[in-house]
Amino acid sequence: MDKEKILPWIKLKDIADISSGLVLSRLKSAKSVDTNIDKKYYYIPQKALSYNYLDDSKFEPLFLDEIIEKRYLARCKDIIMKLTPPYDAAIIDFQREDVLIPSNFAIIRTKNDFISVFLYYILNGNNVRKQIKRLVEGSNIPVIKINHLRDIQIKNVNRYKQIKYSQLFNLLDYRSELLDRKREIEETLKNDILSKL
Fold it and tell me: For 166, which of 12, 117, 186, 195 could close a Cys bridge (C-beta 3.0–4.6 Å)?
């Protein structure tokens, strides 16, 4: 009888660069929004990331007297993750150079052969959630540290399978969105009919 091949586990730090965002309280706000030296940024508040979705309409403006280091600015395909419960992770799917990631998020940038969309799904999966729960157990404030996040274990999946799984997960998400939209339309239709009776 053939034994099932077990994929090796790897640490998150082996496939991604992980850092925390910028501490906003250390920044010097611009004195006025009219001067030429002021730089306008937007930062991502906690409320902008919910249920693994990043809502850019909730970004907050920030006027500064200084230029922010590029490592703190959101890049397309970055993954950001809340360091507090429920530890939601979202993928950056826009091309902008003015969105600042604050310190209550981890910034995860894939390297080597790992695909960020695949990793995004893995980080929101049950296996990673269980590991995070174990890491913060017993602490008064359940904040996950960046060093602990680096040691999260995930299965080493080859690039071809990452692509296939990512496509499948995207299709399932799209199907869920369509079903939600269908329910909304049916509810609206029902209410319209009822209002005329």
Answer: 117
